[in-house]
Amino acid sequence: MPYAQSTRWRRYRFLFFVVLAFAFVLVVGQTTLVSRSQGYDELQQRSSADLNRYLLSLQQKLDRYKDLPGLLSSHSTLIDALVTPQDEFLKGQASVYLEHVNNSINAADVYLMNTDGMAIAASNWAEARSFVGKNYAFRPYFKEAVEGRPGRYFALGTVSKRRGYYFSYPVYNRSEIIGVVVVKIDLNEIESDWTDPDLDILVTDEDGVIFISTREDWKFRTLKPLSRQDVQRIGESLRYGDHKLTALDILQKRERENGGAIVTLVDGKKIDNKALDGITTREFLLQSRDLDESGLTVVVLASTKSVKGRMFYTALTVGFIFIALVLLVLVVLTRQRITRERARFKMLETNALEENEARVRAIIDNTRAGLITLDAQGRIESMNIMAEKLFGYDEAEVKLEYISKLLAQADRALCWSHLIAAEADRQDELFTEAKGLRQNGSVFPIELIIGHMDYGAIKRFIVTIHDITQRKQYEEELKHARELLEHRVEERTADLTDANMKLLDEVEKHQNTQDELIQTAKLAVLGQMSAGINHELNQPLTAIRTYADNARAFMDLGKMEPVQNNLVQISQLTERMAKIIHPLKEFSRKTSGAAESVCLQNVHDGAMSIMYGRLSKIKAQVNWPKRLEQQFVLGDTVRLEQVLVNLISNALQAMEQQETPIVDIDIHNDHQWTTLLVRDFGPGIPVQDLGRVFEPFYTTKKAGQGLGLGLSISYRIIESMGGRLSAENHPTEGAVFKISLPKAPTPDNVMG
Predict the structure, then answer these.
(1) CA angle at residue 554 from 549 to 560, to 5 degrees?
(2) DSSP strand pairing (274-276 vs 109-114)
(3) N or C: which end of the chain has fewer CB within 10 A?
(4) CB of 615 within 8 A of CB of 529?
């Protein structure tokens, strides 16, 4: 092989390997990027499902206890202990009751405070860490409850030093807040249930402080640095004791377009083996969601180790495949391509388990229903404010009285049959309408619901009462109104039938009257034109007489050529007279009213021939736009001439004091409409009369110059052709009348 050819071949081979290496880097790099993107997306989907599951678990845990303080706040034992603070026996009873409640609901602690924040009863009264005698006025949940709002708060216990979530609720006595009841729950069991080697789960408060974490070293740290004021505020509330609220060491954070963020944390564990000057880091996919109405945020940190492993194996696999394919093409060009199998494994997402827990609803005094609790014998234990209003009794007046005292005699048997029925025979709930008996002896209709209220081994009943007096009145009024409406509908139907017949007659008469008015207006214009036409005809008649006399004289002399010329002149004059009279006949005839394509040049010729005599007499000038032969509208030629003659006549009358009146006519076009603008240079229309110019018999003319029907008839003519007629004053001088008509297709001969 010659040296030059060998050198060229080495160059080609070198270039080929360079291109091959570039393609290898490009393919492996792009595949790795795609693999990383897919890996992040799959990791985000899995961690999002886990986040929803943990969020639901925490929500159910909190919802199980959130209504208990409100329920306990209405218990008479706690109210009595607050009303008589000097009675130690009542306080002891309250503590025993709270201990029993705490054992039933499996909470951490339940305690009762007076308005000073002092705990006067607690479920742990018999323990060394008893809350009794401790003051918690500094806690935010106490401040919120004293202000009349349910409170929620997370903090370390000042006595137990254990993490707890607090629910508080005000205790009312006659609409006055006399204390606060608090339920504390332990969140440690939630933390123990959250075990996933690939996920780190955090729960933060509204300040971003981590108080629940699957990583022990992350507890009581923050996701971002706190300001000095926030640290001071949290420290004063003793929320986290003496823990220093330092922020996690986040070295880098990148937000993702479809939610979440990639964060790099300083980690004491050597997992990714990424060391920066001896510091080990770890990368996570962070996602978070807020827990409704709690101020808490659940955060999951999913390790991206699987994504990096996937990227590595993907790059390794793609690189190996690329090299194998290249070698296969170079070594064996004739062999068939080896098929490659790719197996994709997807992890099945587990269905989130939803725990169905019974929720206890608080008995609210301000509910619109009357609520009464009964003991097992049917005696009244408590009433809410609405029940007191309904029956006119105070709770103390009917306490331990039988429920039958509040019912009419006829309804007591049904009520007692439900209360004393055996467990096997008793319905779950009694729902019926009955008569309530007030303290003053008056009876009123009620809706009565008697349900069971189990409290430990003791059976009780809860009675819900709705006053349905107004509903009964509505039913009676509705029945009467329906009967009255049916009667009125029958009468109104007969009246409408008669009125409809009369209206049809009136419409027919109105149509005939309108057509006659239009024709009358045309004849009135003809009367105004007669003087001008008479003047135009006098000149041709005089000339004809002269030419006839001359022709007779020339005939007597035997000169036939002048006779022939005189006869030709007479013929031309008679043709001119026919043209003068023709518009008069066309204008006076009735039209069919059917819309057709109208050329504005024809309208111009007709209107100007009608107005010619009058315009010449008063030396008036009408300026028309050019190229009217290319403007076509949908309408009726004769009626449109009538409207323009009327508008030009009105314009001339408005300028009768001027020596040379001028009327300007312009055209504006858009994609659907063609608008003719007729402007005069007179005094204009009074502003207060602009809305009345098209009313019948409205006129500003002198007596004897018109009845005020011209504009009204013109308005109806344009409206009948599918157009619009409007009037306005010009900004500088005079009035402008606008005729807007639909555009008509332009004939081909005009367009050509």
Answers:
(1) 125
(2) unpaired
(3) C
(4) no
Which pLDDT belongs to residue 402?
84
Q: What is the DSSP string of 346-401?
A: -PPPPPPP------PPP--TTSSSEEEEE-TTSBEEEE-HHHHHHH---HHHHTT-
Tell me the two tokens of residue 156.
């370390």
- Phi and psi at residue 210, in whole multiples of 5°? -85, 120
More confident residue, 273 or 285: 285
Contact (CB, 8 A) for 674 and 667: yes
pLDDT band at 195 (very low <50, low <70, confident <90, very high): low
Average pLDDT over residues 369-388: 83
Long-range contacts of residues 712-719, Cβ cutoff 8 Å, at least 24 apart: 713/514, 713/517, 713/518, 713/521, 713/646, 714/642, 714/643, 714/646, 714/647, 716/514, 716/518, 717/518, 717/639, 717/640, 717/642, 717/643, 718/643
Q: Is the pLDDT of residue 2 over 60?
A: no
Task: Enter the pTM of the model.
Answer: 0.36
Q: What is the DSSP letter of 288?
A: E
Percent of the chain with pLDDT over 90: 9
pLDDT at 749: 45
- Chain segment 669-700, per-residue pLDDT in tens: 988 999 999 999 999 888 888 888 888 766 66
Backbone φ and ψ for 136, nearest 5 degrees, come out as: -120, 30
Look at 22-31, 552-561, 581-590 and tell me which has the smallest mean pLDDT: 581-590
Q: pLDDT, tens digit, for every residue of 624-650? A: 999 899 999 999 888 888 888 889 988
User: Is residue 271 scored above 50 in pLDDT?
Assistant: no
**355 within 8 A of 67, measured Cβ to Cβ:** no
Work out whether strand 458-467 and strand 596-599 pair parallel, antiparallel, or are unpaired. Answer: unpaired
Token couple for 343:
């197996």
Which CATH number is 370-467's, of 3.30.450.20, 3.40.47.10, 3.20.20.100, 3.40.50.2000? 3.30.450.20
Q: 509-533 burial, b if ≥16 CB within 10 A, otherwise e?
A: eeeeeeeebbbebbebbbebbeebb
Task: Name the class of domain 68-186.
Answer: alpha beta
Lookup: tokens for 658: 């001027």
- Measuring CA to CA, which residue among 207, 164, 203 is closest to residue 51? 203
The pLDDT score that the predictor gives to residue 727 is 92
Strand segments, DSSP code E, in 214-351 are 250-255, 261-266, 274-276, 279-291, 296-303
Closest CA to 268 of 347, 215, 328: 215
Q: Residues 631, 741: contact at Cβ < 8 Å?
A: no
Mean pLDDT of 508-527: 56
Question: What is the per-residue DSSP string for 669-687?
Answer: E-SSEEEEEEE--SS---G
Rounded distance, CA 142 to CA 138, Å? Answer: 7
State yes or no: pLDDT of 263 exceeds 60.
yes
Assign domain 592-751 one CATH number from 3.40.50.620, 3.30.565.10, 3.30.300.30, 2.60.40.1180. 3.30.565.10
Alpha helices in 619-727 (DSSP H): 637-654, 710-720
State the pLDDT at residue 724. Answer: 92
Q: Which CATH architecture has domain 190-308?
A: 2-Layer Sandwich (3.30)
Q: Region 333-356: what's the mean pLDDT?
A: 61
CA gap 297, 292 in Å, rounded: 9
- Work out the angle between the directed axes of helices 600-618 and 469-557 (0-180°, nearest 10): 70
Per-residue pLDDT, 528: 52
Q: How far apart are CA 741 and CA 290, in angstroms?
A: 63
DSSP output for 33-87 = HHHHHHHHHHHHHHHHHHHHHHHHHHHHHHHTTTTHHHHHTT-HHHHHHHH-TT-
